[in-house]
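This part of the workshop introduces the protein records we will be handling. As an example, a complete record with its sequence and its structure tokens follows.
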Amino acid sequence: MSPLCMFHQKRFTRSLSTLIALTMTLVFAAFAVPAVAQQQQQQSGQQQGAEPPKQAPPTESGGPEGDIGPYAIPKKPETTTPPPPPRETPKPIEGMPTYTLTVDVPLVTLDVLAQTKDGQFIPGLQKDHFLVLEDGVPQKIQNFSRTEAPFTAVLLVEFSRSYYRMMYDALRASYAFADSLHKDDYVAVIEFDMKTEIIQDFTQDKAAIYGALNTLRIPGFSETNTFDALYETLDRLDRIDGRKEIILVGTGLDTFSKINFDKVLKKVKDTPNVTIFCVSTGFAVKNYAEIYASRGSWNAQLASMDFQMANNRLQTFARLTGGQMWEPRFEAEFPSIFREVASSVRNQYTITYKPTNTKMDGTYRKIKVQLVKPGSDTPLIVKDQKDKPLKFQLIYREGYTAKHQVE
């Protein structure tokens, strides 16, 4: 066979094989496609004909049906348990004492200064020499003692630039008070003008007190808020136990306080165990105003009235708390004044009694103290070394405010 015939024979064989493979592929596709379409139609028909599962109604157990059965939810019982009968009050046992709850009335502590008209302390008085009346009713004295102890005091100094002479007097009086202190005395220094500032907390260091007073050189404001300063000081001292004193050095004028006179007066009455000693400053300015007021000056008359009202306020603060008020004319009087303050504080009779009026109604109770002969209501006669009667005075609080039931 020639080579050309062999080439045509091989080519024919490959073409025949390709044709047979193509024919078999077409036959297979013709049978496979209808089967797949029929299977898809059956699946879609099943999906369309299927209905969503329905929730079975709750069974008697009270919960919905789950895969493993209904959920158990306890039902509230139809009948409730009746309340227990009230407890019977036990009958008292014969022969057994009955106990009751009582409330004790707080004791009233009263510091009394007994001195002559010259300011001399009267020693040697005993418990039976004192008669205490509360709202006119005699009271039984529980405890009695003579106080000889260091004091706890606040030096409250007015330091404003309203009048230079008054500012100078206040500083000189403050230094004189610091000179009269003993080593065991606790003293704090507070200055005020339009606001109140503590320049020295309680200390026994006299040098620290001098240092605090040395800072008072240039006042900040012309206003004098005496009511605010006194109210804040009383509020701070109310948290301290024991006896306290306030040495108020100032004019008594008030120009810009938020607290009025009635409120500060109520605070004075409500604060126990506080004695206020007042030193009025600026006598030269007050005297100057009185002179020009007498000559018909309208401004001087107004200023004179303000000064008189200021002195009356200071006198009221001192009288209500058992203190004293001074109006020195000269600087040389300051040392003697503070010696008298120290003597008054360190030499007092302390009286404690339980009020017969046990009501806790918050009312103000007036107190009166008298010196009597022991065992009687006859006034006591105090005599000097020459057996001559002496005029004397008792200085003490005029009253106190009873506590409320909720306090």
Remarks:
- DSSP finds eight helices and 16 strands in the chain.
